[in-house]
Design brief:
Elements (H helix, E strand, L loop, with lengths): L2 H18 L8 H12 L5 H16 L5 H4 L6 E6 L2 E6 L2 E4 L7 H12 L12 E5 L5 E5 L9 E5 L8 H6 L5 H12 L4 E5 L5 H9 L8 E5 L11 E5 L13 H8 L6 E4 L6 H9 L7 E5 L3 H13 L7 H11 L2 E7 L5 E12 L2 E11 L2 E4 L6 H12 L1
Parallel strand pairs: 7-11, 7-12, 8-9, 8-10, 10-11
Antiparallel strand pairs: 1-2, 1-6, 2-3, 4-5, 5-6, 12-13, 13-14, 14-15
Length: 395
Amino acid sequence: MDDLDELAEAFRRRLVERAREGASGAGDVRADIRALVDADAAALPDAEREALCERIFVLATGLGPLQVLFDDPTVDEVMVNGPDDVYVERSGVIEPTMVRFDGERELVHAIERILAPRGRRVDEATPFCDARLADGSRVNVVIPPLALGGPCLTIRRFRRGGFSLEDLVANETLTAPLADFLADCVAARASILVSGGTGSGKTTTLNALSGAIPERERIVTIEDAAELRLRQRHVVRLESRPASLEGRGEVTLRALVRNALRMRPDRIVVGEVRGAEALDLLTALNTGHAGSLTTVHANSPADALRRLETLALMAGVGLPHAAVREHVASGLDLVIHQSRAPGGARQVECVAEVVRVMAGPATREIYALRDGRPWWRLRAESALTTRLQTAARAA
């Protein structure tokens, strides 16, 4: 750390103290920094004062050495495995960077700057944390003693406006005929589950599908960390909240799903089901809220249905397994399964209709990629075909 960095850190601490004492305004941070530097470092040449102001701003509000990565629009994810080990993901491919922190202390300061404005913190009692940046980027932090190589920071970035179905076609995530078909399914109020592994692009596809919801409808989105960027005007965004340091104030996804039913939604969009909220979502799908969308981690459409059943049973209300399976069979219409290729490309691998059999719900393929070529088979007598035909006549 050179003399200018030491001076910038000293000014940063003074700026924090002034803010705590209410001596600085609540408006322009840059103006506050400029006033402080002009008052207490007037002897420095203009060029050094300008550089000092910029360093203080980065220390006070930025991401430190990571800021250069965030200024690069091609970076989709930043992965810090320790002060000297920083990777990024570009176009689905992970690659190392030359970015380094001066030490563990500087990395910890960067983590604190990210978490503090969100009212979150990590320490030995709570050594991991999820949060999000002001632009919607998702943040995960793990510190020692859980992280053996030093503090780990993972930041997943999201497009400010999200992707459209046309964007996914351009990226070869799906084909144009499939995009048109899925848009028709959303408009016809089919209830859709998007499945796939971590990083397969489930949330991106969910966001793109939501673009086919008619503008006149009221949409309620429910997420652990707000990532969706819906383009409609009438959207209510809800986000869960963890317990405070005192263990109070937690608001779960399940509570938000229940509350959403009282908000007169036309559509409920749940970013991801991963717990007991699955039962409340299935209940909503079976009580007049058809056309809702969500995602789940799974390896195939059939696995997605089984996982949804398992999550619903976690609600612990004593509902028989057969009843849960019946909820799944009658509540869902379509499962879209997505995967990420070794080279990083995301593709919709399979689309399956949810059908009822004697044992409960099952899936029947409508679309699949076979040897890199699309395969289609939509039965004329299927319930989904009837839904699409009814919607087309109504339009």
